[in-house]
Amino acid sequence: MDLPPFLLDQWTARFASASPPIACNLASSTGPGWTLRELAALGDSPLDLTDTPLGYSSAEGSRALRAAIAALHGADPDWVVVTTGGSEALSLLFCVLEQPGASIALPDPGYPAYAAMAMAWRLDAQPYRLAREAGYVQSADAVLSAVGERTAAVVVNTPHNPTGSVMKRDELSRLATELSGRGIPLIVDEVFHPIYFGSAQPSAADIDNVVVVGDMSKALSLPGLRLGWIIDRDAERRARLIGARSYFAISHSPLLERLAAHALANAPAILGRAQAVADANLAALEAMVARSEGRMAWVRPAGGTTAFPWFTDGRDSRRLCDAAARQGVLVVPGDCFGRPDHVRIGFASQVGGLDHALEIVGSLV
Ligand SMILES: Cc1ncc(COP(=O)(O)O)c(C=O)c1O
Fold first, then answer.
1. Cα of 85 to ligand 1 centre, how many Å?
2. How many domains does the chain have?
3. For a designed S-S bond to 278, which of 191, 198, 216, 348 qualifies (C-beta 3.0 to 4.6 A apart)?
């Protein structure tokens, strides 16, 4: 199978060892980074991993970790399946939902791996549009417009990458109920939960017919743990997910599972830092858009770690992104999300130095 090139990852990989090096990485969609030393020192009882048995963990993940994930989402530990990042969670779900001739409804714009994984699992991708002119609002009706006889599942990403839009709780519930009547599960990708600007939203894990995907990478800012999860209350489907995971990965690493459980025990400190960095940097980004005097427009993110401003004259953003990278600032060209006149700016990972970086980007607009 020939998958399309992953333009987003190709773009960031191109600058991994750039000279001069990238001083300000606004291409990342994670929160601010942590070293192992900093993470282990969090909390009242610093973590010592030296006696961790280095065997396999179980396919569904250790009980302690599943309980910690469940607590974060207000779910039952039995509903949790640990995966290798949100990436494997999505892949496993698409695998078990696949049936001959089936389709899957996906957001457009959206995280590019959704469509690639759908293709890999032979699910026909049915895009539903998040309309710029409507402020990228995520409505149940827009999603349902992509649902038909062959739909095997629907994916909603809230907060959303790249736009930062959030589907309101009542819309999510209405969508889940409507889909339930048609026998279609609603996958809610919550990897950016709970980073919100304005009204906070609860996790969708308690809504009937919702399957949640989460991870340690984005809001929890620990992508190197390569740890994610599925929360699915359907016991029969969960057994198939665990079965598929046993074939594909056997288990996650017990070392990384312990690190993740420790991080989740200290989630308030980690999430608090990510929210504070995102709040401050979003204000700086807002000022940059205002300084552009109408050359750049945006929909202010309601949550998450990414914003998706655009050039009002419709020009392609690649040249700006190249020029900014040469000056040490990495942002993502909108064509990586099928919108060449946009730029994706990840604003939650950079601690300090943002004002100077945004001056550089602003001078190129
Ligand atoms: C919306 C969304 N879901 C899932 C993922 C997968 O990330 P990971 O495998 O690190 O959990 C990403 C990564 O960028 C993402 O943006």
1. 7
2. 2
3. 348
Q: What pLDDT, in 10s, does the model give residues 31-47?
A: 999 999 999 999 998 89
| Pair of tokens at residue 296 | 């750049």
Which one of 244, 266, 288 terminates a domain?
266
Cα angle at 102 between 99 and 103, to 5 degrees? 140
3-class secondary structure, 333: strand
pLDDT(352) > 90? no
Is 85 close to ligand 1, i.e. is its CB under 6 Å away? yes
Whether the pTM exceeds 0.85: the reply is: yes
User: Do 246 and 316 have their domain in common?
Assistant: no
Distance 6 CA to ligand 1 centre (A): 13
- Indicate if 172 and 314 belong to the same structural domain: no
228 lines ligand 1 (CB under 6 A): yes
**DSSP state for residue 196 in the 8-state scheme:** B
Residue position matching structure tokens 């790249």: 162
Domain limit, last residue, from 239, 266, 293 = 266
What is the Cα–Cα distance from 204 to 64, expressed in whole angstroms?
Answer: 22
